[in-house]
Amino acid sequence: MAPVKKGILERLNAGEVVIGDGGFVFALEKRGYVKAGPWTPEAAAEYPEAVRQLHREFLRAGANVMQTFTFYASDDKLENRGNKLTFTGAQINEAACDLAREVANEGDALVAGGVSQTPSYLSCKSETDVKAIFKKQLDVFIKKDVDFLIAEYFEHVEEAVWAVEVLKETGKPVAASLCIGPDGDMHGISPAECAVRLVKAGAQIVGINCHFDPMTCVKAVKMMKEGVEKAGLKAHYMVQPLAFHTPDCNCQGFIDLPEFPFGLEPRILSRWDMHKYAREAYNAGIHFIGGCCGFEPYHIRAVAEELAPERGFLPAASEKHGNWGAGLEMHTKPWVRARARRDYWENLKPASGRPQCPSMAVPDGWGVTKGHADLMQQREATSQDQLKQLFDRSKTH
């Protein structure tokens, strides 16, 4: 009989480092299993072998949380703007839970069931309507007995609070992660106040995921931690940022960058950047450290390698990776062998190889959020007339 695994709160209460996985949506889009635009996770049912393999790669890289590939798997999102699928939301969510559990059982990993923001909220549906959407997803997570729950990728703390209130009814541990930066949510509520509201709603773990680069996200979580402590509350903290540099982003994050989503590759963080991120997060008191869009298994391996002294072990994938480039000692070329040292990679300033390109971009700034007519969603496909209006408007921004 397999030993009983320690739960997420048991691990965090003991001061352990918990490493999350990476960005399934972006990783699987690049591999040909997810469509950019809707970003929905039907691959869990359509191409389970692809999802299973990615879970395994993140597990081998050092992750000990397998998050169900249920991002944007609410029925209203699956049916939004003409998206037509052959699988129901329940079928996708069940398949995702099974895959995450199968791989988690291959190591000392936990399964986290995740819900995310909904088109219904953006379209100003009622609290009751939005909570019913979360409840429908939650029924699957209860049936599949996930280890804990995450409300992730919320731009508005109000909707995240509604999600937490639904999730906490299960009695399972609840984490809540907003896709905001230091400027706060899309209604201008500060990270500190957001965190306080989430903890009061019942979240035991709070933090930031997506939309911004690692150091920006760590900064926002620090603000959350300060707010929670000032309010006399207690929580654990998590961070799962982008693997893209975003120094030029506004409050909306990387989706406002002109390169989003098909031209972001020049912004990708190196594995050595990830070492710095992992250390910065840990030193800030964040013990649940993972990644979101852009993170590949080698990024998570770098996080696990940086925090190996605290964890007491290296990930399995390190058997194919010399510490700080030590494997280069075996290279045939002497000038490459000369790079087999930490100070070389820590101090490298990588060139982009694009002499005609700027180092920074000018983000779009349409300035709309929940409650604005432009963000009202629809089941019908976006019409050519609607697209023309958007094309014309984009020329003025």
Automatic annotation (TrEMBL):
Describe the protein's quaternary organization and the partners it interacts with. Answer: Homotetramer.
Q: How is the cofactor bound?
A: Binds 1 zinc ion per subunit.
Its pathway, per UniProt, is: Amino-acid biosynthesis; L-methionine biosynthesis via de novo pathway; L-methionine from L-homocysteine (BhmT route): step 1/1
Q: Where is the Hcy-binding domain?
A: 6-307
What is a GO molecular function of this protein? Answer: zinc ion binding
> What domain of life?
Eukaryota
Q: Name one GO biological process term.
A: L-methionine salvage
Annotated residues that bind Zn(2+) are located at: C210, C292, C293
Example GO CC term: the record gives: cytosol
- The entry's protein name is Betaine-homocysteine methyltransferase
Organism field:
Seriola lalandi dorsalis
Which InterPro entries does this UniProt record tie to the protein?
BHMT, BHMT-like, HCY_dom, HCY_dom_sf
